[in-house]
Specification:
There is one protein chain. By secondary structure, this protein is of the alpha+beta class. 42% of the residues lie in helices and 24% in strands. It has 2 domains: 134 residues, no CATH class; 100 residues. The chain has 9 helices and 10 strands. The strands form 2 sheets. Strands 1, 5, 6, 7, 8, 9 and 10 form a 7-stranded antiparallel β-sheet that branches. It has a 3-stranded antiparallel β-sheet with strand order 2-3-4, with no helix packed on it. About 2% of the residues have low confidence.
């Protein structure tokens, strides 16, 4: 993961992550129905079907650049995962939401764009918030917090259509989430209510499941910026566990940090976050 917050253009971002040269598709003589994907430095990346429509990194990031301008954000981070088969770029608007300035409880709006060179992941755009007091990342409350576009001959038109038409909806989703957060910060929660929500979200009879529930409750009560008093404390106790307490493993092609990022933005933690919002909103 590379910090690209000082970059002012897509070309600077691409240069920073080493993707300024176009990728290429080449035939594989032994397998005529497949082609090899090679990066701009002539390194093999993946094997795909011969009809696979490859999108260049520069083309993909140009869509993100349009979002950056329309949402008044800046470039944030960028890089590769899965051994170079997946590519991401994030945008950030700093201090977009101030909840309690006395304890530094402010949040940034963050938009992630993901794509892949092997078709393992669709072009994906998701909206997140990051709580700065504890660097908790969480998917924004939105009925369509994630937008996915398949790798196909129509993908460029679909991505452009999303950028052209959905800008205001993204702003509305963040505005809605802000109002929900302000409401949750004013919603008192008893220890019993908190434990009931945690039990529903983290089910299981094993000792490990019990330990997870105990850790989440402790983070609700004593986590960074939490007092164990409101529904907002409960949201952050859960997301603090997801970001900093939950164990993630490395794999042959992904580091622990990469797998944590994938889970928070695309995987099980992102999916759970929608349930967290609903459970905590029901306490209001």
């Amino acid at each position: 993961m590379n910090n690209v917050s000082e970059c002012e253009s897509v070309s600077e971002v691409l240069e920073t992550i080493g993707a300024e040269q176009d990728y290429s598709l080449r035939p594989i003589s032994e397998f005529p129905t497949y082609r090899g994907v090679f990066d701009g430095n002539d390194n093999p990346v993946a094997i795909v079907n011969k009809t696979y429509p490859l999108m260049q990194p520069a083309k993909a990031f140009n869509y993100v650049d349009s979002l950056r301008e329309g949402l008044d954000m800046t470039f944030d981070t960028a890089g590769f995962t899965k051994g170079g088969r997946r590519l991401f770029l994030s945008l950030r608007k700093k201090n977009a939401l101030v909840i309690d300035p006395k304890v530094g409880d402010t949040m940034d709006e963050v938009v992630y764009f993901w794509t892949s060179f092997d078709g393992s992941l669709q072009h994906t755009i998701n909206k997140m918030l990051e709580r700065l007091v504890c660097t908790n990342g969480m998917v924004a409350k939105d009925s369509q917090s994630v937008v996915k576009v398949k790798h196909s001959s129509q993908m460029e038109d679909k991505l452009q259509g999303y950028v052209d038409t959905q800008m205001e909806e993204i702003k509305s989703a963040y505005a809605e989430t802000k109002q929900i957060i302000y409401s949750l910060a004013e919603t008192p929660v008893t220890p019993t209510d908190a434990k009931e929500v945690i039990n529903r979200l983290f089910k299981g009879e094993s000792k490990r499941a019990e330990n997870i529930r105990d850790e989440v409750y402790n983070r609700f009560s004593k986590g960074m910026g939490n007092r164990g008093e409101t529904a907002w404390d409960l949201v952050n106790g859960i997301t603090e566990y997801q970001n900093h307490g939950k164990a993630h493993r490395s794999s042959e092609t992904s580091s622990i940090a990469e797998n944590r990022l994938t889970s928070l933005t695309l995987g099980s933690d992102a999916t759970l976050m929608n349930k967290v919002w609903n459970e905590c909103m029901a306490l209001n």
